[in-house]
Amino acid sequence: MARPLWSGSLSFGLVNVPVALFSAVRDLDVHFSQLHAPDGSPVETKRVCSADGQEVPWDQIAKGYELDDGRWVLLSDEDLAAAAPHKSQTIDVECFVGESEIDPLYYERPYVLVARDEPAARAYALLGEAMARSGRVALGRFVMHAKEHLVSIRPRGKTLTLTTVRFAEEVRSREEIAEAVAVGAEPTAEQVENAVAIIAELEVPFDPMRYKDEHRAHLQRIIKRKAKGQKIQAPKVQEQPEKVAPSAPDLMGALKESLARIRGEEGGGPAAKKKGQGAMRVQRQPSRSRS
Question: How many CB atoms neighbour CB 201 within 10 A?
Answer without folding.
Answer: 15
